[in-house]
Design brief:
Helix content of chain A: over 70%
Number of strands of chain A: 0
CATH superfamily of one domain in chain A: MetI-like
Strand order of the largest sheet of chain B: 6-7-8-3-9-10
Number of helices of chain B: 10
Radius of gyration of chain A: 23 Å
CATH topology of one domain in chain A: MetI-like fold
Strand content of chain B: 25-35%
Largest sheet of chain B: 6 strands, mixed
Shape of chain B: globular
CATH class of one domain in chain A: Mainly Alpha
Distance between the termini of chain A: 45 Å
Oligomer: heterodimer
Structural class of chain B: alpha/beta
CATH architecture of one domain in chain A: Orthogonal Bundle
Number of strands of chain B: 10
Order of helices and strands of chain B: EEEHEEHEHHHHEHEHEEHH
Largest sheet of chain A: none
Order of helices and strands of chain A: HHHHHHHHHHH
Structural class of chain A: mainly alpha
Shape of chain A: globular
Radius of gyration of chain B: 18 Å
Chain lengths: ~280, ~250
């Protein structure tokens, strides 16, 4: 075999592999765009300013909006985050920094099991924990359900991201006579922030898209309510209810709700990135 | 001669593996002690025993080490490490901090808020580390944006900022080019007027250039410890002679 042939053969293989990689990227991105544009095309008829600032119209009337559901989803995510993120992040820090014990291994395993629990079961848990003692459905119960769903994702990503921070930073901090907890909080955590942010966003996006655990926790609400002790509207629950209806206008609105949800998650993603960017993130 | 630190029959372990075997070594005050020896001889382990970083990595130790006559096991490790600072082999400035914050980290993270004091300490430390002129206009830039040699001097400045009494250096110039190495060596020479320095090095010329005393480690044993000049010209042990003349290791 001549050297020139070996060279061309190597080049050809390289080209083929690069092509396959690009194809895979395409395969991963195509569904995303399809969902985005199909949802948009189906819901565009109902997407107008009214959809964002008006309340649902009574059955039989067309038009109206889902202002209460947009705000409701926001409130549910806020409650879920307030409950799930601190627990998840602290658990992740614990597992990464002090989790070399049998207790740590058990916690890690249980977290993995927890992330595999169907979301409707988590809804049942929140129903028993919050709805039954309160005696009625509430935004609080829905938030707790979403928070529980966020914990495993946040815990595991936080742990993995902290473990990725090189030991040399930890040692440098300790060798300066900085206490362990301060070193973790001020040196290790900032270095892992970008990765943790990704985990948090993933968890938020997943929670925002949940319908099943909300059905018997926050229930849904056709009226304006920001009271966390009362049932509250959510985009996903509206999308689910309306999609089963016989009214064309409602089905259009159902698609619009789905589209707005995607948009909402997109906006939250961008905002979060900007807020947590940090001064030197770009240089790393 | 007064001794700053004193190791007495130190044995160090990683699990069941013994890394140091009965090492006794006195570190004289305001002098530079070089620790040389082939890879895996225990020289880094010895250094990390002196500020109790050995135990952070999961190692254990028996045998006492004294700092100004006080057993270091009786000193809180956090306080000990403020008195016995350390510079690592690979430059490791904190990636999310500016040049200024890197130098100020030891003080800031231990509660010093006084901006005037911080600025003063940062300038003093950077000057001592011979880095001030190069970074004085870019103190707010990221610490990792500096070159390798500058990063290492930044790490030295960071160590100096907490005003330690002893500075441990674990092959501080092995990842650097010759010019940066020369700067670090020059720096070590100046540091000994106010600090006591223990430096681990692979580079025998470096040990000969910067140190007053040299200890030769081999397979966990301290083979010979004497005045640097004697170690390199007329060592009493055959193994030392073989090593410094390049016949093994």
């Amino acid at each position: 075999m001549s050297a020139a042939f070996v060279y061309r053969w190597r080049k050809a293989k390289n080209l083929a592999m690069t092509g396959l990689s690009l194809l895979s990227v395409g395969a991963a991105l195509v569904p995303l765009f399809l969902i985005f544009f199909y949802t948009l095309s189906q819901g565009i008829g109902a997407l107008n300013l009214d959809f964002f600032i008006h309340m649902p119209k009574p059955v039989g009337e067309t038009g109206g909006g889902m202002a209460n559901a947009i705000v409701g989803t926001g409130i549910l995510i806020l409650i879920g985050s307030a409950f799930g993120l601190p627990i998840g992040i602290l658990a992740g820090i614990y597992l990464a920094e002090y989790g070399h014990t049998a207790f740590g291994a058990v916690t890690r395993f249980m977290t993995d099991v927890m992330s595999g629990i169907p979301s409707i079961v988590v809804g049942v848990v929140a129903y028993i924990l919050v709805v039954l003692p309160m005696g009625h459905f509430s935004a609080l119960a829905g938030g707790v359900a979403l928070g529980l769903l966020m914990i495993p994702t946040v815990t595991r990503t936080t742990e993995e991201m902290i473990k990725l921070v090189p030991d040399s930073y930890r040692e440098a901090a300790l060798a300066l006579g900085i206490q362990r907890w301060r070193a973790t909080l001020r040196v290790i955590l900032p270095a892992a922030l970008k990765g943790i942010t990704t985990g948090v966003l993933l968890a938020i996006a997943r929670a925002a898209g949940e319908t099943a655990p909300l059905l018997f926790t926050s229930l849904g609400n056709r009226f304006w309510s920001t009271d966390v002790t009362q049932p509250i509207a959510a985009l996903t629950v509206f999308a689910y209810d309306y999609s089963k209806s016989p009214f064309e206008d409602w089905i259009r609105q159902s698609w619009a709700a789905a589209f707005v949800l995607i948009l909402l998650i997109f906006v939250v993603n961008v905002l979060f990135r900007i807020v947590t960017r940090g001064r030197f993130a770009a240089e790393r | 001669m007064t001794y700053k630190m004193k190791a007495e029959g130190v044995n160090a372990f990683f699990g069941k593996t013994q890394a140091l075997k009965g090492v006794s070594l006195d570190v004289p005050e305001n002098q530079v002690v070089a620790v040389i020896g082939p890879s895996g001889c225990g020289k880094s382990t010895f250094l990390r025993c002196l500020n109790r970083m050995h135990e952070v990595a999961g190692g254990s130790r028996v045998g006492s080490i004294l700092l100004d006559g006080e057993n270091i096991d009786d000193i809180d490790p956090v306080n000990l490490r403020r008195r016995v600072g350390m510079v690592f082999q690979k430059p490791n400035p904190f990636p999310t901090m500016s040049v200024f914050d890197n130098v100020a980290a030891g003080l800031k993270l231990n509660g010093t808020r006084d901006r005037g004091k911080l600025a003063e300490v940062v300038e003093r430390s950077l000057r001592q580390a011979a880095l001030w002129d190069e970074v004085k206009d870019s103190l707010q830039k990221s610490g990792v944006s500096l070159s390798g040699g500058q990063q290492q001097r930044l790490c030295i400045a960071r160590t100096l900022a907490v005003d330690p009494e002893v500075i441990l250096m674990d092959e501080p110039a092995s990842a650097l080019d010759p010019i940066s190495t020369a700067k670090i060596e020059e720096l070590i020479f100046q540091l000994k007027s106010s600090y006591t320095v223990v430096i681990v090095t692979h580079n025998m010329q470096q040990a000969a250039r910067v140190s007053d005393m040299t200890g030769f480690f081999y397979m966990g044993n301290l083979i010979e410890y004497d005045v640097t000049k004697k170690i390199f010209t007329a060592p009493s042990m055959k193994q030392t002679e073989d090593y410094v003349t390049g016949r093994f290791g």
